[in-house]
């Protein structure tokens, strides 16, 4: 095996630990195919993006690391209350003087321009996302970034057609948007694209472990000549997020993240005139009936829980499999899991990258140990994990009951709980037995059964014979503790217009 001499590759070289194969010592031994990081122009330190320019923050700068290597990537400014205030004021000015009064057909031109630049700079965005987040380059390149561009194109198309959307044409004003680390750029797109299309201006706070692609997006706004103040990016952790959502100058709060923080935000804005949308966690059931095409279902199960290391709010973390085929499905699932490649996220062959942070790894470990203690049986394929960085092998638990915490709580990692059922009624009852209600999957060859079951599942999104499909034209959002409001599609406009209800 010859390796390219790129420094980023050397740092990862020991990390590409796939499953042991009979070819290990042969000329066909695994050869990593790392993406080059040369396309990314990493700076030592990053400021805040306020009123169209990068400014120094007045808080205490923090370091963002590469979770696959634990190496620092850059120093990032922390926005203090005063910095947040300056960003909200800039957004207010831009809303009143430029963006609010601008015709929708003009706003559309900026959004189309941003979408095109995202496509042009897609490789740079994908590599930077993978470096800062730990997700496989195959996913950032083929899923995240293309969906980001698609979202901007889609909402660009709405900007001059709002009168046909059903929620009026009057924007809310300044939107405060706080997003998590699992899909840094995609969550940014879900928040910013509809807000701008409707004529609002925004102040967005990315997560503290993944701020870099939001700052690159700020550069893209400059490149697109977006008027100053229309988009502002403030970096920092929970305190910065709180200062932003509690600022009296914001008209709308949009949050994606944990149920706990979401509840706090709902309390903080109660009694104000601020509108709020919350996209919180999930504990989706992936239901496999005995007539399902099993190989396809196994692919869907794997995609449902191991995509993005399971850091997905709509992950299919509860497998409900019909008892008659449970043994066969589990056999094939285990065989498939043995082929998953865990390691260097920049390697184009990697299936599972790094866990995003030490804190998230600790949460996954802790809840998995609860699974052991509750008597569920843990299984993982043999896989060698890199020494540096944060890693968790793909894992499944069998013998899980509905009372187990691993069946009730969001693990937000590559951990699948397997339960069985006998009848469709039992499957529906178990699937709905959760405080969440974001998504679900149904696998069956019978269209009528899919429709019958889907109708009775209390979940915002139900996938049939597929999982984790995202499309900007389709609304996404949940019931109960999964939050409220919809993102995507015509429904997504409601959250940013006076005539909408969310
Ligand atoms: P979190 O809710 O703490 O963080 C999400 C975002 O909110 C980050 O930008 C964070 O800085 C900000 N934030 C934190 N406290 C805030 C506050 N008081 N006011 C305003 N903003 C605040 O999530 P986490 O700690 O990164 O993850 C914890 C758990 O949350 C995970 O294990 C997972 O179960 C869940 N989670 C869900 C999603 C999702 O997409 N629904 C995303 C991330 C995490
Ligand atoms: Mn990081």
What can you tell me about this protein's structure?
Helix 15 links the parallel strand 16 and strand 17. With 502 residues, this protein is an alpha/beta fold. It has a seven-stranded mixed sheet with strand order 13-14-15-12-11-16-17, sandwiched between helices. The protein has a six-stranded mixed sheet with strand order 8-7-6-9-10-18, with helices on both faces. Strands 1-5-4 form a three-stranded mixed sheet, covered by helices on one side. The chain has helices spanning 7-12, 81-99, 104-120, 122-133, 137-158, 184-197, 212-223, 238-245, 259-269, 294-306, 326-337, 358-373, 405-408, 424-432, 447-456; strands spanning 45-46, 48-50, 53-55, 62-66, 71-76, 174-178, 201-205, 231-233, 252-256, 275-279, 285-288, 318-322, 377-379, 395-398, 415-421, 439-443, 461-464, 483-484. It starts with 6 loop residues before the first helix and ends in an 18-residue tail after the last strand. Helix content is 37%, strand content 15%. The chain folds into two domains: 45-279 and 479-496, Aldehyde Dehydrogenase, Chain A, domain 1; 285-464, 3-Layer(aba) Sandwich (Aldehyde Dehydrogenase, Chain A, domain 2). Nicotinamide-adenine-dinucleotide binds next to helix 8, helix 9 and helix 12. Manganese (II) ion binds next to strand 4.
């Amino acid at each position: 095996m010859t390796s390219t001499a790129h420094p980023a590759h050397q740092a990862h070289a020991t990390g590409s630990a796939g499953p042991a194969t009979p070819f290990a010592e042969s000329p066909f031994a695994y050869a990593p195919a790392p993406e080059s990081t040369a396309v990314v122009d990493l700076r030592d330190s990053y400021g805040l993006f306020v009123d169209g320019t990068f400014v120094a923050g007045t808080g205490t700068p923090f370091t963002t690391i590469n979770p696959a290597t634990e190496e620092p990537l850059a120093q990032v400014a922390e926005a203090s209350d005063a910095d947040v205030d300056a960003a909200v004021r800039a957004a207010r000015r831009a809303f009143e003087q430029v963006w609010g009064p601008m015709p929708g057909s003009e706003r559309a031109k900026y959004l189309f321009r941003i979408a095109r630049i995202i496509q042009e700079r897609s490789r740079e965005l994908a590599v930077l996302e993978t470096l800062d987040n730990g997700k496989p380059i195959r996913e950032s390149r083929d899923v995240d970034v293309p969906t980001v561009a698609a979202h901007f194109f889609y909402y660009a198309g709405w900007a001059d057609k709002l009168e046909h959307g059903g929620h009026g044409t009057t924007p809310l004003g300044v939107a405060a948007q706080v997003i998590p680390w699992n899909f840094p750029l995609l969550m940014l797109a879900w928040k910013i694209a509809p807000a701008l299309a409707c004529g609002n201006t925004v102040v967005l706070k990315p997560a503290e472990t993944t701020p870099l692609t939001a700052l690159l997006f700020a550069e893209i706004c400059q490149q697109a000549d977006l008027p100053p103040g229309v988009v502002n990016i403030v970096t920092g952790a929970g305190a910065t997020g709180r200062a932003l959502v509690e600022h009296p100058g914001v008209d709308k709060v949009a949050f994606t993240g944990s149920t706990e923080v979401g509840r706090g935000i709902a309390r903080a804005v109660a009694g104000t005139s601020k509108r709020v949308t919350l996209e919180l966690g999930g504990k989706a059931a992936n239901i496999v009936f005995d007539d399902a095409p099993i190989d396809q279902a196994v692919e869907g199960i794997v995609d449902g829980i191991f995509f993005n290391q399971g850091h997905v709010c709509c992950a299919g973390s509860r497998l409900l499999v019909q008892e008659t085929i449970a043994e066969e499905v589990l056999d094939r699932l285990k065989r498939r899991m043995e082929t998953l490649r865990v390691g260097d996220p920049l390697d184009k062959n990697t299936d599972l990258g790094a866990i995003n942070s030490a804190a998230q790894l600790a949460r996954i470990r802790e809840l998995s140990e609860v699974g052991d203690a509750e008597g569920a049986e843990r299984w993982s394929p043999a896989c060698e994990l890199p020494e540096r960085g944060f890693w968790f092998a793909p894992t499944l638990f069998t013998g899980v009951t509905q009372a187990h915490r691993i069946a009730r709580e969001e693990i937000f990692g590559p951990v699948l709980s397997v339960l069985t059922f006998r009848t469709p009624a039992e499957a529906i009852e178990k699937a709905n037995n959760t405080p969440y209600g974001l998504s679900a999957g149904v696998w069956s060859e019978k269209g009528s059964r899919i429709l019958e079951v889907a109708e009775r599942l209390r979940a915002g999104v139900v996938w049939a014979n597929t999982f984790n499909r995202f499309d900007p034209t389709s609304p996404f959002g949940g019931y109960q503790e999964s939050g409220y409001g919809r993102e995507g599609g015509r429904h997504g406009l409601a959250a940013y217009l006076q005539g909408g209800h969310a």
